[in-house]
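Why this split exists: single-chain examples teach little about how molecules sit against one another. For that reason, every record in the complexes split bundles all components of an assembly together and asks for one structure covering all of them. Below is a record exactly as it appears in the raw files.
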Amino acid sequence: MRYGHFDDERREYVITRPDTPLPWINYLGSEAYFGIISNTAGGYSFYRDARLRRLTRYRYNNVPFDLGGRYLYLRDAVSGDFWSPSWQPTQSELEDYECRHGMGYSAISSRHDGIEAETLYFVPLAENLEVWRTRVTNKRDAEAKLSLFSAVEFCLWDAWDDQTNFQRNFSTGQVEVEDGVIYHKTEYRERRDHFAYFACSEPLAGFDTQRDTFLGAYKGWDSPAAVERGESFDSVANGWAPCGSHHVELTLAPGESKEIIFVLGYWENPNEAKFDPPGSQTVNKKLVKPVIERYLRSDEAEGAFQRLRDYWSELLGILQVRTPDEHTNRMVNIWNAYQCMVTFNMSRSASFYESGIGRGMGFRDSSQDLLGFVHMVPERARERILDVAATQLPSGGAYHQYQPLTKRGNNDVGSGFNDDPAWLILGVAAYLKETGDISILDEDVTYDNEPGSESSLYEHLQRSLRYTLHRLGPHELPLIGRADWNDCLNLNCFSTTPGESFQTTENKEGGVAESVFIGGLFVLAAEELAQIAERRGHTDEAASYRADGATMDATVREHGWDGEWFRRAYDYFGDVVGSKENEEGQIFIEPQGICVLAGIGVDDGKAKKALDSVASRLACEHGIVLQQPAFSHYYVNLGEISTYPSGYKENAGIFCHTNPWIMIGEAIIGRGDEAFDYYRRINPSAREDISELHRCEPYVYPQMIAGKDAPSFGEAKNSWLSGTAAWNFVAISQWLLGLRAEYDGLRVDPCLPKEWERFEATRKFRGATYRISVSKPKGICKGVAQVTVDGMKTEGNLIAPHPAGAEVVVEVTMG
Ligand code: BGC
Ligand code: NOJ
């Protein structure tokens, strides 16, 4: 069953009924001002940091769910009937409801009692504001007298404090209303230089800024008192809960349409010009007013929207493919790339599942997000690399996250995850291959954001690699620390206290827990750093990294191999994890993926064996589960992984982030059918027909699909913010379709299903445009027989970079 359909032409997903199984979300904003918006206009906005600069409130895990949003109400002045054109919060009956989620915008439209309303929500490029453009049309035979009310609830900036510190916060709220614009200025009188504003293009019949006056005591967003009675209270908030609501009266002749624009935004004043007149307590609005006035104009709003659409056309134009599979096309050309941008922007902070309060930007997460993002806006990737690296500790280790506003690392979600530093090397390598900009390696970057501690970025990478080398255990495998990629494999934790965080609680000293996964990751990172060293002319250094990699490779084969697959780890006591010797958790997906990716066992059959074990023991119809058999009870020596009921999350859920590693592994050993089969199992578009089971959005990857041990096998959870986005993009575009940026050019090395006969791609790379067509005889999966570039045969399958602006025709014949 479906709840809508893809409109690939317009790059939209069109939801045709409001009661989706879960809120189906989209994101607004490109760089600093962001919001999430659901298919019923739920969600919230923030400036840079979902925790520290929250503009509007959202109620987590509420009933009915998804409350708090960008709401509008229409009211018929004659009958008194009122409704929300986005369905929530009144949930009135609507005809022709449609929500079109597009690239950085959402448009929600519906009809009720002959009145049509369509609202487009978007954030103009380079502005810290959002536009809601509403068009109301009277489709009745008679004149309609209507009221339109807007409604947002302001957050008092720090979203954590806002949800907890009521003794203070019920007394701090302040607003100003001037010329119909509502200014939310809580704490502006003291240390803040910023305020929010909410403006409307039309003359107002009234307004409200005190939530409880607008709603009425004990009443909810579904029936605000002001809307019910058809008249605002003109309330001015003083403490309690500030909100913003405008009231506009409309009289529409039959067939008549009216456009009303609302602008909600964030503004910072220079400290010396906070007040106007100086010395007063009145917000200086001189600087913000022209911006507000501009976007309240219809032509400006339209122009800004077109620029947003053009921006996305350009970004997505960097890679476009035409393959025999529509799900591949749709995800590569539109949604997977879009999700990569969103995960790059949000890390794991703000979604329906991430409150925006708990987590900032992850060190590991952001480094991996780069892999899927770097081709889109390399300058922003560069900045991100430098930001992440600046939080690295002098030891080469890392805080697990940093706050985007302050850019400082913190231990809020733990530290000492021993895989963290290696991902920075992979992220930087991806940037270098895409851009060729090796100057970034000479940038001076701090450690722990401490001025004076700077070294070159290159040295950061060296320290990253050394961090692992200096922390080897009894088998010479890397010590795991708090955990590795699998945050929940906590081998040193031994937690027996209810509620204690596995991520932050003190680890037990003296253990020898080692990770085969980090072993594989190290082999991969050592080769990347060797290549980087070569680019800098450090041949000896490169050789020594390769030697370290080879030693680790041998160690993994010796102590990390279980006979049929790669082992997972050794625990605190030195006992094996992820082995046939274990009763539960005998085989884990992560080492099978990362080791093959690193090339371990490709030459001696271990890789193939490991992947065969994945196929027989972990793969199921909805994807590949993380491990088997699932942990049926809590293991104090394994930690959080065994806290989850079987089949969920890290305990044998289909943790989608890991599946592309196996796809890539299959591609490396040349099995195109298997690689694509795995790709399709978790491809959200290919799962659209089972939306009632899948439940999450069919246009983006979820972090997890319940595994075969769960009663809800096949149900997705935690959509949007996951390394799944970047890794699937890497798997499909670089390894299955095989278009890989390398230092010396663009590699074309596909691994395709036997059935396919051809595909085409356009790839922009370092300023030139490559029009690539790949053809192959049926029955073959891998191997390039011939390449011509602009009609000339070339040696091998690496296409040298062409000058910026060049159009290059590449014909590839496989065989
Ligand atoms: C989740 C992990 C997540 C971690 C972050 C755990 O509860 O299962 O997937 O990475 O929390 O703090
Ligand atoms: C989610 C985290 O964001 C990611 O970094 C981690 O690798 C996975 N959980 C697995 O635990």
